[in-house]
Amino acid sequence: MADYKKAIPVPNDLTKDYWEGAKQHRLVLKRCADCGRYSHPPLPTCPRCQSEKMVATPVSGKGTLYSYSVMRNAGNPGFESEIPYAVAIVELTEQKALFTVSNLRDCPLDQIKIGMPLEVVFEDVTPEVTLPQFRPARKG
Ligand SMILES: [Zn+2]
Description:
Elements: H1 16-23, E1 28-32, E2 38-39, E3 54-58, E4 62-71, E5 85-92, E6 99-103, E7 117-124, E8 130-136
Antiparallel strand pairs: 1-2, 1-3, 4-5, 4-7, 5-6, 7-8
Bound molecules: zinc ion.
C-alpha cells in the first residue's frame, strides 16, 4: 500500500458518505428521501423532484455492464503496469440508468460482454482510502 502511485480521491461534503461506505466495504449512494430516486455521482438536490433530502443509502453492489473502453495508454501516472485494462460503465440494479464508472477487474479483455452481470469488490489502496471496483458476478 505504501507505494500506491495512482491519484487518491479526496472526499468532499458531497462524496464523503460514498468514501466512508467504501472503507466499510459497502457501496453507498445518495437517495432522495421524498421520491426514492438514487442519483450518482451525488448531487446536492434530487434531479427529479429537487428535494434537498438526499440520504446516504447502501445498495446491493450488483449491476450489469452498460459500456466499456479499453485503455491502451497510461494517460495518468501509476497505470503503466496495467495497460491494457478496461474501464466499465456499470448500470446498477437498483434503478434504470443509475450508472457508476469503475475499472473492470478479474476479466480477460476478450471475455467482456455488454450486459454481463457484475458485482462490486473493494480495493483498500491506502489506510484511508478504499476504491469500489467491479468484476464479473460470481455464481452462488
Ligand atoms: Zn426526489
